[in-house]
Amino acid sequence: MSIKNAAAIVGVGDVELEEGKVKDGLSVLQIQAIAAKRALDDAGLTKSDVDGLFVAGLWGVPGVGTFPSVVMGEYLGIEPNYTDSTQIGGSSFEAHIGHAAAAIQAGLCEVALILYGSTQKSERSRSLAGRPPTFTAQYETPFGLPSPAGAYAMAANRHMHQYGTTNEDLAEIAVATRKWAQLNPYATKRDTISIEDVLQSPMITDPLHILDCCLVTDGAGAVVLVSPERAKDCRKKPVWILGQGEAHSHWSIQAMPDLTMTSAAQSGKRAFEMAGVGHDDIDFVEIYDSFTITVLLTLESLGFCKRGEGGDFVKNQRTAPGGDFPMNTNGGGLSYAHPGMYGIFLIIEAVRQLRGECGERQVKEAKIGLVNGTGGTLSSTSVVILGRD
Amino acid sequence: MDKIMKPLPIIDNDSKFFWEGCEKEKLFIQQCQSCSLHIFYPRILCPHCGEENVTWVEASGEGTIYSYTIARRAGGPAFKEDLPYCVALIDLKEGVRMMTNIIDTDMEAIHCNQQVKVVFQKVGEMTLPMFTPV
Fold first, then answer.
1. In this structure, is residue A249 part of a structural domain?
2. Residues A84 and A203 in one domain
3. Which of A91, A180, A224, A326 is the most buried (most CB within 10 A)?
4. What ipTM is given for this predicted complex?
């Protein structure tokens, strides 16, 4: 069963940030509504066209946020035929793309709205530490792992031990991503940084420095997905779902089978096979960059390079503007924005690149893009391959 | 101001035997009687073969550091007084992996594949399994 070309993205929307915060004290419900309206306007559709609703979030928990798609349906005045609150962390939205395309292909809905928002920066609620050590957390929380950074740090240390990867290798990613951010007027961090700056920045949890870690910001994003039939009447040209895959291997970092390889090895393989394209066909990638090590492990897991060769792969600013492997072209979670679960923003950027809407940071001749989401502590992954006509 | 208490395990029906063992300074893990593989964390059925035939066995308490990190910022306010401290993943001889702290050693000398053994540490009302180099 394949969902290749079963659906197209026809609308994307997000909200502006000032120093990583939403303007005017907007609430998490308000910014999601604004992003949704903008995505529907972008597509030339209205909320009454929406019959599939996909929402994941971390807001309002405990409380109404336990039921995000139901609450956002109520707030927006949408009563969907198809609803999905799949929550697998930052990769939730790449999974929603696959689920929505499958639902559209099955005729269960025609116009799907995918939605996310967070005001974690305004609320100062980023840290995952201090949650009650119930169920599987009782074997981890009592040992004080800085979460989630500590889990990623352990992956980095293991990769360094096995393959000789260095802090300089990781810093290449942070510096290249910042160069993309400098071309994006909406990016939060735009001042120049060097590899030395990354290495000299404060250590958070060995071996990750603060400039190896994503930002903590607010943000909201929305994506509209429709059937091929509906895509004909939309305002913007369609961006097609060519392939999608999803996987998870563990939740707790102690249960990760191999700290140097993520389940993108499986989700990526399925997405490539479905799309019927190879690595050389990909014109640009949007790779979840919660931490620099996340990117390195993912590039290897997706097969862009061999295991252990991620450090060599990203050397000499290869992923920066002007390099031969354009990656994280909006400035990424490291420099653009990272509102908790970042995955929806990777999709939004890929769509804008494929439409040629990216101004200074536009990747020339961008026809096929790969998006990878990673959630939890390297726990879940989902890969989407997108293309234009 | 009152001292901030460290988060302690909230015991449930899967974990009761494990934490009671720690109280007696014994490290218990599970073993599946159907496929003979060891299991950690404890659960009601075997995650390897799916059978419900699991029993408790006392572990050797010996293993190696699979990976680790030295926290320079605390994973919660109660851990600030411990900074810097080491959180590690231990591969026990029996083939299971568990999270712990490495204690009673030079933080800067800790490395992957280092041999360690369990030591039991009182934290609040409970006893946690921690590890130290051999």
1. yes
2. no
3. A91
4. 0.98
Does A179 lie in the same domain as A224?
no
Question: Measured between alpha carbons, how far is A307 from A24 in angstroms, rounded to an integer?
Answer: 47
Specify if B68 maps to a domain.
Answer: yes
Full residue range of the structural domain in which residue B73 is found: 16-133
Edge to edge, the sheet with strand A368-375 lists A82-84, A52-55, A111-118, A219-226, A8-14, A239-248, A380-388, A368-375, A284-287
Domain extent, residue A211, equals 146-215+244-388
Chain A residues touching residue B8 (CB < 8 angstroms): 133, 142
Strand-pairing partners, residue A82, are A52
The 8-class DSSP code of residue A327 comes to B
Q: Strands, E, within B33-125: which ranges?
A: 38-39, 54-58, 62-71, 85-92, 97-102, 115-123
- Contact of B103 with chain A, judged by CB distance below 8 Å, is answered with no
What are the tens digits of pLDDT across the range A81-118?
999 999 999 999 999 999 999 999 999 999 999 999 99
B41 vs A136, A155, A204: nearest CB: A136
Contacts of A143 in chain B (CB under 8 A): 87, 99-101, 128
Cβ-Cβ contacts under 8 Å, A203 against chain B: 72
A330 within some domain: yes
Residue B78 within any structural domain of the chain = yes
B5, B99, B127: best mutation site toward chain A, by most A Cβ within 10 Å?
A: B99
- Asked if residue A337 lies in contact with residue A18, where contact means CB atoms within 8 angstroms, the answer is no
Number of other residues whose CB lies within 10 A of the CB of residue A54: 30
Residue A132 lies in a domain: no
**A257 touching B, CB under 8 A?**
no
If asked whether residues A176 and A285 sit together in one domain, one would say: yes
Residues A333 and A226 in one domain: no
Comparing CB atoms, the residue among A132, A161, A205 nearest residue B69 is A205
Beta bridge partners of A285: A327, A370
| A256/A313 same-domain check | yes
Q: What is the DSSP string of A33-51?
A: HHHHHHHHHHHT--GGG--
